[in-house]
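Retro notes, item 3 of 5
We never archived the inputs for the zinc ion complex last cycle. Fixing that now. Sequence and ligand:
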Amino acid sequence: MLLADFRPKSQLVTKTTLVEKPRVPVIDAHNHLAEPFGGGWDKKPLAELLDSLDEAGVVTYVDLDGGWGEEILNTHLDLFKAKAPARFQIFGGVDWSQWESKGDGFPDWAAGRLRVQKERGAQGLKVWKDFGLHVRDHQGEMVKVDDQRLLPLWETAGELGLPVMIHVADPVAFFDPIDETNERWEELGSHPDWAFTSPPFPSFMSIMDGLASLVVRHPNTTFIGAHVGCYAENLGWVGALLDRCPNFYVDISARIGELGRQPYSARRFFIQYADRILFGSDMGPDKEAYRIYYRFLETDDEYFNYNTGDIPLQGRWHVHSLFLPDEVLKKVYSENAKRVFGMG
Ligand SMILES: [Zn+2]
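Structure as it came back at the time:
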């Protein structure tokens, strides 16, 4: 038998708690609506989408797809926000490809587009992972995450009250050689373009140092570090940045695989930083996916698959739940998001 065909069945006799709805209604701070991550809801009836969200106990859904371009931003504002304003928040983005033609004027131009996007209805700024890995300036130089020239962009986001949802670098293993020691080997096998082996790419830590200095340098701008601050493997590092920067928040989307394999540290992290953590799933409006999150946060169930599929996608391990106290759940599920997104 090949190792790839091995499907061990756990013989543990433990409980499985079905949590159909969250303890309190949820704000999902990190998700998508169109392909490839959101399930193509721009082509399906809105009523069906609202029903799925109701069934999952999600009152407001943050859609980050506008970060892919102003055309998508405008389409999503019309398709979703205009029709159900309380149910959606749509984030805008930066068109880095314009740096080449705008030259030295790019940062001011990008800040100006942010104003236009806000006027049009955008409620935040999404920064994708190509920032720090692929984005280049007009001279073809790689732009560092904490590049001083971008000051107008980050300061304008702060001035406009637009929170910046930023994803850089993560996960760590994507920077390692793709060999038998790489814990995301299977995932990289199915997505070879997700590998950023360093060199030639910058090292993981150099990008993360850039993120930290960016957040430190703009205390009037709110940054949300996607996927547990882009470093779910190292909650000590994330906690240190949260300690240092009151303008820094994290979402937990797509990382219960990481949190649930270090349940003691994760539980302490949630309790210590209860005011700084936002719920998010990044799995589309999928009821079954939400239920795994609720089970993970609320129950004391042990050793279960953190994905809906047969084989866990980010590594073949199982997770343990965190049985968070009610007051922590309330903050993580909705109170923190209400504050960060300025929802009454
Ligand atoms: Zn996402």
